[in-house]
Specification:
Layout lengths: L20 E4 L2 E9 L3 E9 L4 E6 L3 E17 L2 E5 L7 E4 L5 E18 L1 H6 L9 E4 L2 H11 L7 H21 L6 E2 L2 E2 L1 H13 L7 H8 L3 H12 L3 H17 L6 H7 L5 H12 L3 H8 L2
Antiparallel strand pairs: 1-4, 2-3, 3-8, 4-8, 5-6, 5-7, 5-8, 7-9, 10-11
Helix pairs in contact: 2-3, 5-6, 8-9
Length: about 300
């Protein structure tokens, strides 16, 4: 990996708290950075002829806008897998404080992205909060417009005031979006059996495809926030972890067949290539797919 604006940074791991880092495998050029007491606004350009490996965890709430040049992403979000083959139509990602994101971005090879870091203490003092789980892959034209408008104030003396006002409005907008569409799809705090069956069948039929949180919530007839809570109450896992585990279960079944290549298994289980599949499998199972196959076929 090469060092750039999002290069190797952050604290070393410690026993008393999480480490924070921003790591990419490509050249990142800072285009504009503006600081306010509670909001940090960055615009960066990225260049790479190959998929870009990315690893990120920060103490602030982080709103990403992958504005131009992104075609696909394959991300492990706090242990769960999130993909988008149409990144240009799902350009936003909301990452809560302390959440770890790692994976790959596929770009054109030049792209532009923005990050708005919001101090969680600023939100708490004003009675605002964000989801406790990451939300990757959503679109919002009004949010895009508001970020462009905020960008015009970067060199103004009142930027801090404008940025904090923007943060409160943006959080309220995202929360309203996530809390919309009340439903009766709960059962004892979780999903009804019918709703869970719909989601489970949908996931199992599409493990080779991109599966987003918004589409699963819509399938269950819930807002994203309601769905995340109800799904965890039903399964004991986040939706992302559930999908990730289902992909690995399918991979283990396919590995029992010696005639199926690892690349075929990777694609069938929703991974972009064999190396990404191998890395994710090793992290979860403790051995590579090849080693698992050798042991299983003894």
């Amino acid at each position: 990996m090469s060092r750039g604006a999002d290069g190797f940074s952050g604290k070393a791991p410690s026993a008393t708290g999480p480490s924070y880092f921003r790591q990419v495998s490509a050249r990142v050029t800072p285009e504009n950075r503006q600081l306010a007491p509670s909001v940090r606004f960055e615009t960066n350009r990225l260049h790479s002829d190959a998929p870009v490996a990315w690893r990120f965890r920060q103490p602030e709430a982080s709103l990403f806008w992958w504005e131009t040049g992104f075609t696909r992403y394959d991300l492990d979000v706090d242990g769960g897998k999130t993909q988008a083959d149409t990144a240009s139509r799902r350009p936003f990602g909301l990452i809560p404080p302390g959440a770890e994101i790692r994976g790959e971005h596929h770009i054109k090879p030049d792209c532009t992205y923005h990050i708005l870091f919001i101090d969680p203490a600023f939100l708490e003092l004003r009675g605002k909060s964000l989801l406790g789980e990451p939300l990757i892959g959503f679109s919002d034209t009004a949010l895009e417009r508001s970020i462009r408008e905020l960008s015009q104030w970067r060199d103004d003396a009142t930027f801090s005031l404008m940025a904090e006002g923007w943060a409160l409005q943006a959080v309220a907008r995202i929360r309203a979006r996530l809390d919309a569409e009340p439903s009766n799809a709960y059962a004892s705090g979780g999903l009804t059996p019918a709703a869970f069956r719909r989601v489970q069948d949908y996931v199992c039929a599409r493990l080779h495809e991109s599966i987003g949180l918004i589409e699963l919530a819509t399938l269950a007839g819930l807002s994203v926030r309601q769905f995340s809570r109800a799904f965890r109450a039903t399964t004991g896992r986040s939706p992302a972890r559930f999908v990730h585990d289902r992909r690995l279960e399918l991979a283990k079944t396919m590995l029992l067949r010696s005639d199926v290549k690892l690349t075929e298994i990777a694609f069938a289980c929703g991974f972009s290539h064999a190396q990404h599949f191998s890395n994710s499998f090793h992290r979860a199972i403790g051995m590579t797919p090849s080693a698992f196959r050798r042991r299983a076929l003894l």
